[in-house]
UniProtKB/TrEMBL annotation:
SUPFAM superfamilies in alphabetical order: alpha/beta-Hydrolases (SSF53474)
UniProt organism field: Nocardia rhizosphaerae
Keyword Signal appears in the UniProt entry: yes
Keyword Signal: yes
Coiled-coil ranges per UniProt: none
Superkingdom, natural source: Bacteria
Signal peptide limits: 1-21
Protein name: Lipase family protein
Record key words, sorted: Signal
PANTHER family: LIPASE 5, PTHR34853
Stored Pfam families: LIP
Length: 395
């Protein structure tokens, strides 16, 4: 029997109860701007590959929009092409402050990219932080919005997001038309965007040691994906679609070490096909109320040391890198979606290493509202970094 998914090249072979599946990648973006050039391997990480002036956006009035394509690196050390969208305000000045904001991207398809969402009329994919970002632009700061999941939309590959974020900063400093060669830069993000931000901060000393970054503000960060999965313990969950998406994304990034499709039953493969190009709503709908056991033909991957190592390698609590930049971290102490103990462990390790870390607890009881409640304190902290004030610490 031949089952073909909705995505080009997405083919699953099943016969006599045996299922063999290959990774299901997203449909390539039809815009050739996003394609990697043939000489990509000869380019350096962060090198600008192309820029494009984009149409003005009503949600960011008076702002100039520039799409920048640059060379980055996959989790396997391979060259990839990545993009970031740079918003420059009317009051932009040469070498003015830049906020690299790693927006939440709960998606597996190219239409979920921030650079695409900005111009989408789909109400299900929006930049909901537009109000806060307009407040930033009104201060004269520019904003960079990287597509930090990479060209295959490897949702869950948090380390990759950190590398793309850093290469995005390299690129905006190299693009002459942006006039940001000596701009002070601060990184920020929440939840999935917070993962990319926190990983960028931890990787910077080794991955991009030449970059001077004024600080990183990361909120609601899932610091340990292993303990998150263990806490789920095969139970059904209304947001299980995000777990499914993370499995698909990790398989895309680590096809040899995380072959989750080979362990899926027909129901799981159908769900995989349904979300392969999906964004938040499609992903949540496909997994709502389900569990790992609903979609698994075999649980062998759970005990596979190579697969577990992939999850560990994308868990910041288990990474020994230490940021050299100041850190602002915020979360809800009662957040039910992320392991709080992992955040506390990372904070203690950073403090012991001498990091200027400020940890802020919101009064929110859950994950989403904590993002909003933490923004005022985060913006105040970021503003102080751009002023050059000494970084506070709660260590």
């Amino acid at each position: 029997m031949l089952i073909t998914g909705a995505v080009t090249g997405a083919t699953v072979l099943a016969s006599a109860g045996t299922v063999q599946a290959i990774p299901l990648y997203p449909t390539p973006d039809p815009d050739p701007f996003y394609a990697a050039p043939p000489d990509l391997a000869a380019r350096k990480p962060g090198e600008v590959l192309a820029t494009r002036a984009m149409p003005p956006l009503l949600i960011f009035p008076g702002t100039t929009v520039t799409l920048v394509k640059f060379r980055s690196t996959s989790s396997l050390g391979q060259p990839i092409a990545a993009t970031t969208t740079v918003l420059t305000p009317p009051a932009h000045r040469t070498d003015g402050p830049v906020l690299s904001y790693q927006h939440i991207i709960n998606g597996l398809g190219t239409r979920c990219a921030v650079s695409r969402v900005l111009y989408s009329g789909d109400p299900n994919v929006q930049i909901r932080e537009a109000i806060a970002l307009n407040a930033v632009l009104a201060r004269g700061w520019s904003v960079a919005l990287p597509d930090h999941l990479g060209p295959t939309f490897a949702y869950g590959a948090a380390r990759l997001g950190g590398q793309i974020t850093l290469d995005g900063v390299r690129a905006l400093r190299q693009a002459p038309d942006l006039r940001m060669a000596d701009s002070p830069v601060v990184l920020a993000g929440y939840s999935g965007g917070g993962m990319a931000t926190a990983w960028a901060a931890a990787l910077a000393p080794t991955y991009a040691p030449e970059l001077e970054i004024a600080g990183a503000a990361a909120g609601g960060v899932p610091m340990n994906m292993v303990t998150m999965l263990e806490a789920l313990n095969y139970r059904s969950h209304p947001a299980f679609g995000l777990v499914l998406a993370a499995g698909i994304g990790l398989e895309r990034e680590y096809p040899d070490r995380f072959p989750i499709s080979e362990s899926m039953n027909s129901r799981g493969l159908a769900a995989r096909a349904a979300v392969a190009d999906g964004c938040t709503n499609e992903i949540l709908a496909a997994g709502a109320g389900h569990s790992v056991r609903d979609f698994a033909a075999s649980m062998s991957l759970v005990a596979d040391p190579a697969a577990r190592a992939v999850v560990e390698e994308n868990s910041l609590e288990l990474f020994d890198g230490i940021p050299t930049m100041p850190i602002f971290e915020w979360h809800s102490p009662s957040d039910p979606l992320i392991p709080i103990a992992a955040i506390d462990n990372v904070n203690r390790r950073y403090c012991a290493a001498g990091v200027r870390l400020f940890s802020h607890h919101t009064f929110s009881p859950e994950h989403l509202s904590a993002a909003v409640l933490g923004i005022p304190a985060a913006l105040g902290w970021i503003d102080a970094r751009f002023r050059g004030d000494p970084a506070p610490s709660t260590c």
